[in-house]
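As described in the Methods, two query proteins were run sequentially through the folding procedure within a single session, without resetting any intermediate state between them. The first query and its resulting structure tokens are shown here.
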Amino acid sequence: MTHKPSNLLTVGRITGVFGIKGWVKVKSWTEPSEQIMQYSPWWMKTRHGVKEMKVVDFQHRPQGLIVQFEGIEDRDQAEALGRIEIAVEKQQLAPLEEGEYYWYQLQGLQVVSHFEGKDYVFGVVDKILETGANDVLVVKPSEGSMDSRERLLPYVPGLYVHKVDVQAGRIEVEWDPEF
């Protein structure tokens, strides 16, 4: 195992084995899902640390993505990997336009609502849900929150989300605290 600094971002998961020649099924969390194949190396997050793995082949199947790793040549070796997370180094991600953010950059930011002339601290972004129309921030209470409620806020810049300041660790919104 290799000790790797915390500049890793989880982008998928091994979900099972495929066939007898060491291939594994991969669930990608990238958008689009094929984007995961643009990153190298992959770092496998095991209970013993992280391990660098090199993808030597992949295929898109109707059931999803399958991958073969260097040094994994049979089903037993593939099963030994288990159902582990796949991470890549954050600096491999493509740069974004001004005002665009990767989800991982929003997670953990404090959410403050400016509503009817008052400020309300809702908590921090715990996760983000993809709903189709727009993403939704799941805001969980934290130290200094106005109450202990979890809130779901639509991530709609310009309408509800007025400012994202990653450096300051803060998202400013306009959202009724009673909702």
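Immediately afterward, the second query was submitted; its sequence and tokens are:
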Amino acid sequence: MKRVSIRLAICLASVLLALLGAGCKENSKPRITRINVSPACGVVPVEVVATAYASGGDESGDPLGGNNNLEMNWAFGDGGNGSTSVAYHTFNQAGTYNVVVTAVDPAGETASATVPVTVLPDSLVVEPSTNFPSGTVTTSDIVHFAAAVTTCDVDFPGVPGDAVKLSFRWQMNDATHQVYTGSNPSFRFVTAGEYDVNLTVTYAAWAVTRHSTIHLTVTAPPTGAN
């Protein structure tokens, strides 16, 4: 009976040690505790500084991962890479990029984190549109105009409230010389012809103004159309 108890105690101790070992192994896996890429938005070319804090591996090391047996690898989303805790990179093309940092420990365990970076082609991006994307309308059609405006702190119409940060001026350039100052005017051209509708957007906070044009071909409605 005593021998059975000893064996049982040894078995329980072995299980406990195994569980403790598994817990320690789990706790020693790398973890990304903080990631920062600055600036998070800018105009081409955008030079960023990417920093990641990691834990795991040799906890007596640098929390940046430089001396704690962790390899820090960066993928900037445009083909660029880095292999240091603090990485520097320049984005030369407009777009939205997912910057990924991966920490790798000597056992091959990994942890990753992602931060988006927005790279704009201009400090104020203006894209006008209408409900006639082909650019061809008739004198019986009502044309509804709209504009998408983007800066690093404006996203209209994604954020409808951003409209108050902007001023709009639509010039129809027809015989009436009609001008609208709202963001979404509607208009009917009463005379057939070719028209360049000019949009001017001003972002007063940055003292920036941009112009854009929509060309419309206006024709008479088909014979018999209501």
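The longest helix spans residues 2-27. We note this only descriptively and draw no conclusion about the first query from it.
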